[in-house]
Design the sequence.
């Protein structure tokens, strides 16, 4: 496996025997066996095509005066087929760190759980919580070492640490960007439109939650690959809290109640 | 994406007791983006004959215009409306004319014969007719639609029950398809 040298990040431990038993699988990046085929590159190309990174989703996160808001839809699509309307796309890494899922579901779930494990180990070794900067760097370095091998992830790491609210975007190409406003996925352009128009740094928590809900709702309306349920989380000094989970269909009728439509002109009557 | 799933569509027609129902979704999209929620896919040819067209939206509109033209000409010459079977043959012939550069649409024809018995049939994009006694489906959600119709359909339903059954079948199928949905319209005759 192509890799960066992680030995500097390894926490020093007293009991090397203990280390071998438990941490061997978690402390280092997991190593995966490589398929023994004649044409390795061709095989990898075909495998990447099979997974077909589609990133059909809408997730967003933004920082404001009272913390970080993270919101996402819940639809999983395989091409045109909706495989699920109830996917948890906001992953709870630990009580004060959230990660979002976009791209390959398996990739996101596995590597963010792996990140949670390593954050916990950091806490145990250093007797203090890991910062959002540190957590996102751990994930980004792991993903960089698998660069080009077909992982598909566009994730945002949001949390609250000693320096205040933190938000990073990390992707499977190995990119890591700090920012105050991100939206990821096929519906992101629609969400940006609503989010950018309605954003105000001094919003109250309720206003921010409502803005995030509206942005995701509008994205699910226009984008066929997003839908299901809008989940909104708020990350404050005490950690994250799930604020709401609303079905998109019901939101549609509450935002745009049905009015009596005038008789539609049909093509049949010429 | 394939050309027939560029715009997204879902259509069903079902046979009841001396009546038929034809239903479609209302979404018009371009790949994943939704453009409109009021797109018309079911067209009335005459009081007891309807055609629903799924597939590429431009071909839906063109096919409708061509068929309406041919039917009006028929009305002028024969001084009566076309029978459903005749219309189905007309549709089949018009589609096969374009055998080597086809219209990318798959029509569903639903009508009542002169004796009041319902008639439904579907054709593929180059005109192969397929008559059916119970229901026909078409569109990007067709596999889901087949499943829903198969489980929900009962023969000899009255108009009200038929409306319920066809609506539920349509709604539950488009809920599993990204590119169809956003409303539905049902015609019961």
Sequence:
């Amino acid at each position: 496996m192509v890799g960066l040298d992680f030995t500097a990040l390894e926490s020093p431990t007293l009991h090397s025997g203990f280390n071998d038993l438990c941490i061997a699988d978690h402390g280092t990046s997991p190593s995966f066996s490589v398929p023994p085929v004649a044409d390795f590159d061709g095989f990898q190309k075909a495998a990447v095509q099979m997974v077909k990174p589609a990133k059909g989703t809408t997730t967003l996160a933004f920082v404001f005066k009272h913390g970080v808001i993270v919101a996402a839809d819940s639809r999983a699509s395989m091409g045109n087929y909706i495989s699920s309307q109830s996917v948890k796309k906001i992953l709870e890494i630990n009580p004060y760190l959230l990660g979002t899922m976009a791209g390959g579901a398996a990739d996101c779930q596995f590597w963010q759980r792996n990140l949670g494990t390593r954050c916990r180990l950091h806490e145990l070794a250093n007797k203090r919580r890991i910062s959002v900067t540190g957590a996102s760097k751990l994930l980004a370095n792991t993903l960089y070492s698998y660069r080009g091998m077909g992982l598909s992830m566009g994730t945002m790491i949001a949390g609250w640490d000693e320096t205040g609210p933190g938000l990073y975007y990390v992707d499977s190409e190995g990119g890591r960007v700090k920012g105050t406003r991100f939206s990821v996925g096929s519906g992101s352009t629609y969400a940006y439109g609503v989010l950018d128009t309605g954003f105000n740094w001094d919003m109250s928590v309720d206003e921010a939650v409502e803005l995030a809900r509206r942005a995701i709702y509008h994205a699910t309306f226009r984008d066929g690959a997003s839908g299901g349920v809008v989940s909104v989380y708020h990350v404050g000094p005490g950690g994250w809290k799930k604020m709401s989970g609303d079905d998109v269909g019901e939101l549609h009728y509450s935002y745009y109640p049905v009015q009596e439509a005038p008789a539609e002109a049909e093509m049949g009557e010429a | 994406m394939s050309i027939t799933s560029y715009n997204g569509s879902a259509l069903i027609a079902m046979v009841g007791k001396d009546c038929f129902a034809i239903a479609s979704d209302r979404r018009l999209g371009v790949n994943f983006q939704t453009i409109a929620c009021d797109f018309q896919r079911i067209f009335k040819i005459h009081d007891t004959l309807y055609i629903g067209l799924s597939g590429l939206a431009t071909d839906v509109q063109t096919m409708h215009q061509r068929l309406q033209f041919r039917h009006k000409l028929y009305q002028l010459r024969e001084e009566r409306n076309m029978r459903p079977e005749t219309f189905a043959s007309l549709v089949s012939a018009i589609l096969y004319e374009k055998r080597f550069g086809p219209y990318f649409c798959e029509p569903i024809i639903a009508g009542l014969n002169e004796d009041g018995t319902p008639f439904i049939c579907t054709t593929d994009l180059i005109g192969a007719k397929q008559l059916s006694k119970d229901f026909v489906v078409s569109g990007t959600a067709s596999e889901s639609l087949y499943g829903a119709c198969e489980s929900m359909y009962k023969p000899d339903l009255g108009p009200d029950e038929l409306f319920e059954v066809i609506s539920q079948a349509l709604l539950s199928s488009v809920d599993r398809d990204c590119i169809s949905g956003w409303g539905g319209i049902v015609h019961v005759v």
Remarks:
- Residues 74 and 86 of chain A are 5 Å apart (CA to CA).
